[in-house]
Amino acid sequence: MYIMDDGIRIHAALELPEAGKEKLPLVIVLHGFTGHMDEVQLVALAETMRSLGCATLRLDLYGHGQSGGSFREHTILKWVNNALRVIDCARGLDFVEGLYLCGHSQGGLTAMLAAGMKADALDGLLLLSPATMIPDLARAGVDLAGSSFDPRHVPETLSTWDGLILDGNYARVAQTIRVEPAIDAYDGPVLLLQGTADETVPRACAEQAAARYRDCELIWLPEDDHCYNFQLPLARKAVADWLGRQLRRRG
Ligand code: FER
User: Percentages helix, strand, coil for the chain, rounded to the nearest 5?
Assistant: First the structure.
């Protein structure tokens, strides 16, 4: 199905738990940079969430997967707008009681920013290796998606590690993003998962975000990478334990 956001189609997969009640908690799941909703770890973690009785809504964000917009024109703020729109949409569904937001990497950063804007709409935040270093890389002009530049004179386009072209506005937008105020504006419960061998997001990013949130459980996945290729069962268990606890707490 598609959810329209300001004229752009957001491709979404709504899946219900097998043993569902009349009212269900819903988890919205956001992928990362160059990613899509069908990545192995997102499909697996969404299945874990459904096994706990939640509905899941996996999305393709602007310029990714089967959604509208081009990769070149995407920015983190366009993704935040997508998330805000989908949160509003989810709140309007009559079967939804309890709303959680989950995001991987750049989608995790997006989830943090959206949660800071809509803390009152969310019952919990699940952050999968959130890429909180992106704004700092953009401000430094160093190795942003593999591209380095003068941060005061951002080029018209940047070319990424995989030879994809990004509009310079991606970097200009990222330069303005501050994660700390978004963290401070969200006082609900947070789960943060991070592999100890993640080569994309530095360990310090996870440590700093977890320390700053008021109620955050940080789970380290030993020797795991950015996409949980080695410890997916452990990632599933961490989500099941934390989300199960949140659901029981809410009754
Ligand atoms: C970067 C490092 C990581 C970057 C983006 C990411 C745009 C995002 C990774 C992901 O979402 O998986 O330098 O630049």
Answer: 35, 25, 40
Greater pLDDT, 12 or 251? 12
Task: Convert the pLDDT of each residue in 189-247 to its tens digit.
Answer: 999 999 999 999 999 999 999 999 999 999 999 999 999 999 999 999 999 999 999 99
CB atoms within 10 A of CB 9: 16
Helix (H) or strand (E) holding 111: helix 106-117
- Indicate whether residue 105 lines ligand 1 (CB < 6 A): yes
Ligand 1 contact, 51 CB (< 6 A) = no
Partners of residue 27 on adjacent β-strands: 56, 100
Ligand 1 probe mutation, 30, 60, 106, 159, most atoms within 8 A of CB? 106
pTM summary value: 0.98
CA of 194 to the centre of ligand 1 (A): 15
Q: In the predicted model, what is the mean pLDDT of residues 56-78?
A: 98
Please tell me the predicted confidence (pLDDT) of residue 20. 67
Q: Give the tokens for residue 9.
A: 């189609």
Domains of the chain: 2-133+179-250 (3.40.50.1820)
